[in-house]
Amino acid sequence: MIAKDVNDRTAVGPLARASQPVGRAAVERRPSLLWVQTEDLTQILDSATWLKTADELRALGWDVFLVQPGPADSEPVLRDGLLYVPKPATYFLGQRAFHRNVLKWLDAHGGVDVVMFHPLSVLWLSSARRERGGKRPLLLMDIRTLFMRAAAPRLRDRFRAFYYEHINGLAQRWLDGYLAITPHMATASGISQERLLGVWPSGVDADIFAPAAAARQWPAPGEPIRLVYIGSLHVERNLLGLSRAVVEANRAGMNFQLLMVGRGSQQEELAAFARQSGGAVEVRPAVPHSEVWKVLAETHVGVLPFPDELKFRVSSPIKLFEYLAAGMPILATRVVCHTDIVGNDPYAFLAASGEQDALVAALRELWAARARLPELGRQAMATTPQWTWQASAAKLDVALRRALAQRAAATR
């Protein structure tokens, strides 16, 4: 039997939904997915990527076993839709033990149709390919982040760089296919179209952010346009460049306030600049994800000032979807991760680059459109249905079922 908490109502073992009669018809057995991710979902900011997508896949007919690292001295247990697998705290040996525990669970509970995992797991999961109970699961690697070399690498960084540079060579002989967060990620990762089963981007829970649009007070004549950035406050995000552009725009007769909420390596430098900005720039500590909509409700325009670099081109920025769902116009740089979403839509004000002059030019266009902000916000919000987690999970569902269909066709 599958290890299962008696209070669990959301996850079912892969063999527990064998065909059941409904009147004279029979319900086809639900396909099952073991989704291996290595991070503690209670600690990471993008946990919705896994939690919401898993829920949506269940609604689409899958039995999903989403792995959550558990205490090292525990036993695997399925609770509230998560498969808690023991993971020691040590770095390399902890990963080895964690994946060994995943494989033990898979050995004990045959019948899983698909095992999906991320690049960090490649080294450990090749043996998941063998048959269990006369059945072999499909092994699919999902690539959602691009490893970037550290400027001053430590020994651990050098090891990780070597690992990620050789990951496709490690995996291509036994993987059944790849998934990716964007087409640009697939290209950057060297995935051929023949091996790429599908692309599924980030998403948003629209119901969480809709109240921001209802609560927002748009600026009256003479009041500032309040810009907001929520996320990591790292130097590569070009937040200091945007801060300087806001101050310059105000000196030219415009009226903007920039609020940045989060934490990161540049947090103190940004806070120091804010103290000298005459109130034009404000930095606040990070807030729980459940509180983000309240911050968006007190602001008017969501900003994404990222430079046109590979790590941003390949991404699918969750914050962009959250801004749209909150009914906010967008000020962003002309990078494909943004333009693929907003195109030339009128609610998006796109800077030609992340340079200060280009950002000021985009701010000038936004300032000229200030009377139309409520309508532009409604237009932005109207695009949300195509960027929900439900829409993203539907793309993943298609890709997973395509993989199963391809194997079924190959074995006929």
Domains counted in the coordinates: how many?
Answer: 2
Mean pLDDT: 88
CATH topology (fold) name of the largest domain: Rossmann fold
CATH superfamily (homologous) name of the largest domain: Glycogen Phosphorylase B
Query: Number of DSSP helices?
Result: 15
Q: Mind telling me the CATH class of the largest domain?
A: Alpha Beta
The name of the CATH architecture of the largest domain is: 3-Layer(aba) Sandwich
Let me know the largest β-sheet: 8 strands, mixed
Q: From the alpha carbons, calculate the radius of gyration and give it in angstroms.
A: 23 Å
What is the spatial order of strands in the main beta sheet? 5-6-4-3-7-8-9-10
Strand content bin: 15-25%
- Cα(first) to Cα(last) distance is 30 Å
- Tell me, briefly, the overall form: elongated
Say how many strands there are.
16
**Uncertain segments:** 1-27
Structure class: alpha/beta
- How much helix is in the residues? 25-40%
